[in-house]
Design a protein that fits this description.
Strand order of the largest sheet: 1-2-3-6-7-10-11-4-5
Largest sheet: 9 strands, mixed
Number of helices: 14
Radius of gyration: 33 Å
Oligomer: single chain
Helix content: 40-55%
Number of strands: 11
């Protein structure tokens, strides 16, 4: 026993002194490319201590070695990933290159948290000609970009109990920053179910994530599901699947610009905006409608909008639970984007869109959550009908089981096909019966008409 304890103590000392195992025990992908090492591969390596995983954890991104910057007191879910370099360090310019890159990433993360969405709200960091690209629409100009921030906040208010969370901010080059975020909210179709669960005594509503079932179709009612639901309620909780929309936003900056030229462009943009408003007011003044008619129509529209908004707010307030706002202090709340960087281009991608394009999105619940989120992202320049058509064209969910034009909710594909075949047979039989009866009634009618004509002819001859 003493020898065994001594041997174990020696192995522990060796592992602490040299936490990395020999190259023979590494996976083939890691042996061929040592820099291509991820956190997941580190965790499965034999003989690797947790201290090594914490201190030497790297993230795989296009074959570039990065180090997770886990500062003291920083949230690991929103930890900033900064570029460490590959020896040559072709991004570094002078001794302050690393500090500038870290400062840019910290500034972007702080700006996103202040804005409450994947946008930069500071006008000083925006180009007047900034370009925004999304899955369903594009827009140009700094004024439209700032307006889209307001639209984003209004969209979050339209989703029940929505929450924006910044998952990670990564700086992949000297002028490029990638932000990963997600939006969680209660699907509108489950508001009543959630309201009922919160009113049950001794039952806690637990929200669950169902993104892992993205490739599994939603089946219909089964007694097994009912037993599972009753079992959960008996244990004191009610599982409710909530919507999770994950997205990635890429910010492309320009380093070094003429500040006077940028200020002049912003001033010209404001002047043109004022002129366009004056022209629109002049057009309204000399339009066919008189001023009184316009005022009456506007008052009616305002009252209608106010009444409808009050009804919607009351329904959401009754079915949803108010979330207390907790002010959290962060170390980077005062971080700013360096003055020499200017945002030129921004692109936004939703993680569910590639699954939908590849035909791998089979869960009807997740597809409905995606459409609910996109319904609130309508740009101000498009009407609701135009936006709905654009979303339907970009996100074709007709191939998702249960979301086709002839799909029946609550039935699996096999049962639905059998039901459709049975319904087709019944309809065919009904059509045949109607045709036979129609032909019979037509024959009787023509026979009666011919008899009346013959009788009339006989009476005329008499």
């Amino acid at each position: 026993t003493t020898l065994h304890m001594a041997a174990l103590l020696g192995v522990a000392i060796l592992m602490w002194a040299n936490p990395f195992p020999p190259s023979a025990s590494l996976p083939p992908s890691v042996r061929s490319n040592p820099t291509h090492l991820s956190v997941r591969s580190l965790r499965v390596l034999p003989g690797l201590s947790r201290r090594c995983v914490r201190m030497h954890a790297t993230i795989d991104a296009g074959g570039t070695n990065r180090e997770v910057d886990q500062r003291k007191g920083e949230d690991p879910e929103t930890a900033l990933v900064s570029q460490k370099g590959d020896g040559k360090n072709h991004w570094r310019e002078g001794e302050g290159g690393e500090a500038r890159r870290s400062q840019l990433g910290d500034g972007v993360a702080a700006a996103i948290r202040r804005t409450g969405g994947p946008f930069l709200g500071e006008k000083e960091s925006l180009s007047p000609e900034v370009v925004f690209r999304s899955e369903c629409w594009d827009q140009n100009g700094g004024a439209e970009y700032l307006r889209s921030i307001t639209e984003w906040n209004e969209a979050l208010e339209g989703l029940p109990e929505s929450t924006f969370a910044l998952r990670r901010v990564s700086q992949i080059s000297q002028t490029t920053v990638v932000a990963q975020w997600n939006i969680t909210f209660i699907p509108p179709s489950l508001l009543g179910f959630t309201f009922l669960g919160r009113r049950l005594p001794g039952v806690e509503v637990r929200f669950i994530d169902i993104l892992h079932r993205i490739e599994y179709p939603v089946t219909g009612f089964t007694w097994e599901k009912l037993r599972y639901l009753l079992k959960c309620i008996s244990r004191g909780f009610l599982p409710v699947p909530y919507a999770v929309i994950q997205g990635t936003t890429t910010f492309h900056f320009q380093r070094g610009y003429d500040s006077k030229e940028v200020e002049s462009k912003w001033s010209r943009m404001v002047t043109e905006n004022i002129k366009s408003k004056a022209k629109s007011r002049a057009f309204e003044r000399y339009s066919i409608e008189t001023e009184d008619m316009m005022n009456v129509r506007q008052r009616f529209q305002d009252r209608y909008d106010e009444a409808s908004n009050q009804i919607i707010d009351r329904v959401f307030d009754a079915l949803s639970e108010p979330q207390p706002s907790v002010a959290t202090e962060r170390s980077d709340s005062e971080a700013k984007i360096p003055m020499e960087y200017l945002l030129m281009r921004q692109s936004e991608e939703l993680d569910l869109i590639p699954y939908l394009d590849a035909g791998r999105l089979k869960n009807r619940r997740i597809a409905n959550d995606l459409l609910s989120f996109l319904d609130t992202r309508k740009p101000p320049v498009l009407s609701p009908y135009e936006w709905d058509n654009r979303v339907r064209q970009r996100c074709d969910v007709s191939e998702v089981p249960g979301m086709g034009p002839l799909d029946i909710d609550g039935l699996d594909p096999e049962t639905q096909s059998e039901f459709v075949e049975s319904a087709g047979a019944i309809i065919t039989f009904g059509v045949v019966v109607v045709l036979v009866l129609g032909v019979g009634f037509a024959a009787l009618y023509f026979q009666q008409v011919s008899q009346e004509a013959a009788l009339k002819q006989i009476l005329e001859e008499l």
